[in-house]
Design a protein that fits this description.
Shape: globular
Structural class: alpha+beta
Strand content: 25-35%
Oligomer: single chain
CATH architecture of the largest domain: 3-Layer(bba) Sandwich
Number of strands: 28
CATH class of the largest domain: Alpha Beta
Bound molecules: flavin-adenine dinucleotide
Helix content: 25-40%
């Protein structure tokens, strides 16, 4: 077996698989090392948010997910009744997609295999050593070397531990229960969410036509450690207490207890070692975010790591992975901790706070603020973008939306389709207009196009635009004002 790869990704969960795909399309010799012989069958993540669908669309594969999932027109914050509205972000995907993680991982592995990514299964990584010029990855019975290693190896990441990266946060204090079951007497509405003094219950169809997912917080049982198996009796009785009737859950395919442990890695990069996904951030699964944020970590890291490995970009480019993505992890830490507090306490004060927040979420600006954070639509890169209140979002540091363009031959093209091969996109909207990228960026990595939006109200005043491979606006040239590059290192 070959034992040197340019990049080794530890962990073939959703994040490791997506990162490997991103590295491969950029021409990197990458291997994924996974301890499991076969993929996990646990449904776990059900929610794919709109920004992750955009990420898939940026590589031309969103349809594969759309045809296997169920769109849900709105989202939730802490199971509050006032739903999150995703309609104002200019996305082709203003909803969440319900699709079990087992299906998501199968689709990601399919993509990885199409791209000929090497996936080495049944190998457990036991040690990581960065010697300054290479990383030695030790396994059960052999060793690999690589230029960089990425820990996408989940919450108990061996990569993070070996790099001695601090994983501070809040220890588990409450547990929630989950059951993927058949409902003998299902509720009239296919999805319900009830919180009262008896606890909290969320029920939604699993999407396979048979099972429902029940998430139950039972105040009498929140202190049970997550290692203790869940029984169907706990689910039946606890759910009935909250909703006032028995839905007769049976034939569970997955029963689990999960905790509100919340942690964030002190850094996402240490030398030649990088972290992504649950290896970098864990939290109670509130609002369906962990996998989504991890996929977006991978999207941010992939093209940067490829450019550094190829010697195109300075090593310092990798520091921008930490400066751009860790603040998103910090926000995730805060919002999931807040939500966990709101769904695991049932005293009169917390129920009153829920009522207050429920009212506040009816204010469009408040709703948009949380909807933008949970969906990932509002994630930005660099400092400049944070000050921007422009809802259109055509600003340096914000995501480009998938507008339709008309080129010089009068053909319609979607902006995202121009990024499918992982190149940068330079768009000239006025004859001869251009905007500079980072000095290290080679012209061969940029696709140049002269085109205008089909909707002339979009991009008004913009003369040229540079979009990064991950779909973020790196630079923009407007009439009157020049908005420079984000803080990407220059050679
Ligand atoms: C009940 C529940 C519901 C959830 N719902 C959502 C949701 O709706 N939306 C959402 O976005 N997120 C959700 N999440 C979170 C989501 O499941 C995780 O964030 C996601 O799995 C993280 O992906 P990952 O690739 O980073 O890590 P993982 O999925 O944990 O994958 C890590 C991989 O690394 C492998 N590995 C670990 N150690 C080693 C080693 N030493 N050597 C080799 N391989 C190793 C593991 O076997 C595993 O395959 C939910 C989680 C739970 C528990």
């Amino acid at each position: 077996m070959k034992n040197f790869y340019e990049v080794i990704v530890v962990g073939a969960g959703p994040v490791g698989l997506w990162l490997a795909c991103e590295l491969k399309i950029a021409g990197i010799d990458v291997a994924v090392i996974e301890r499991r012989m076969v993929r996990s069958t646990q449904s776990r993540a059900l929610t794919i948010h709109g920004r992750s669908l955009e990420v898939f669309q940026l590589r031309g594969i969103a349809d594969r997910f759309l045809c296997r999932g169920t769109p849900i027109p709105s989202g939730h914050y802490a199971a509050l009744d006032t739903r999150l509205d995703f309609s104002s972000f200019g996305s082709r995907f203003p909803y969440t997609l319900f699709i079990p993680q087992v299906v998501t991982e199968a689709l990601l592995e399919e993509r990885a295999l199409e791209l000929s990514v090497t996936i080495l299964r049944g190998i457990t990584v036991t040690g990581i050593r960065d010697n300054g010029s290479q990383v030695i990855v030790s396994t059960d019975d052999s060793a690999f070397s690589c230029s960089y290693v990425v820990g996408a190896d989940g919450a108990r990441s061996i990569v993070r531990q070996q790099a001695v990266i601090t994983y501070d946060g809040v220890a588990a204090s409450n547990s929630l229960m989950l059951a993927d079951v058949i409902l003998g007497s299902p509720p009239a509405k296919s999805a319900i969410s009830v919180t009262n003094q008896y606890g909290s219950v969320m029920i939604a169809p699993l999407g396979d036509g048979h099972h429902h997912r029940i998430v139950l917080v039972d105040p009498q049982r929140v202190h049970i450690p997550k290692t203790e198996p869940v029984t169907l009796k706990e689910i039946t009785e606890g759910t009935a207490r909250v909703v006032g009737e028995n839905y007769h859950p049976r034939d569970p395919i997955w029963l689990s207890r999960f905790s509100d442990e919340t942690r964030l890695a002190e850094t996402y990069r240490q030398g030649r070692i990088l972290l992504a996904g649950d290896a970098a951030h864990i939290h109670a699964p509130m609002g369906g975010q962990g996998m989504n944020v991890g996929l977006q970590d991978a999207m941010n890291l992939g093209w940067k790591l490829a450019a550094v490995v190829k010697g195109d970009a300075p090593d310092a480019l990798l520091d921008s992975y930490n400066t751009e993505r860790r603040p998103v992890g910090q926000a995730l830490y805060t919002n999931t901790l807040a939500q966990a507090g709101l769904v695991t306490r049932f005293d009169p004060a917390t129920l009153a706070l829920r009522e207050t927040l429920n009212d506040l979420l009816k204010i469009p600006a408040v709703n948009r603020r949380l909807a933008g954070e949970l969906s990932g639509f509002d994630a930005t890169i660099g400092h400049e973008a944070k000050a921007v209140s422009d809802s259109e979002g055509w600003q340096t540091g914000r995501r480009a939306t998938d507008i339709t363009l008309i080129n010089n031959e009068n053909q319609s093209i979607s902006l995202y389709s121009l990024l499918e091969d992982g190149h940068w996109l330079h768009l000239s909207l006025c004859s001869g207009a251009s905007v500079p990228g980072p000095q290290w960026l080679q012209k061969s990595r940029i696709r140049f196009l002269a085109a205008v939006p089909s909707d002339l109200t979009v991009l008004q005043g913009v003369r040229a635009l540079l979009v990064r491979p991950d779909g973020y606006i790196a630079a923009i040239d407007r009439e009157q004002e020049r908005s420079g590059n984000i803080d990407l290192p220059r050679q």
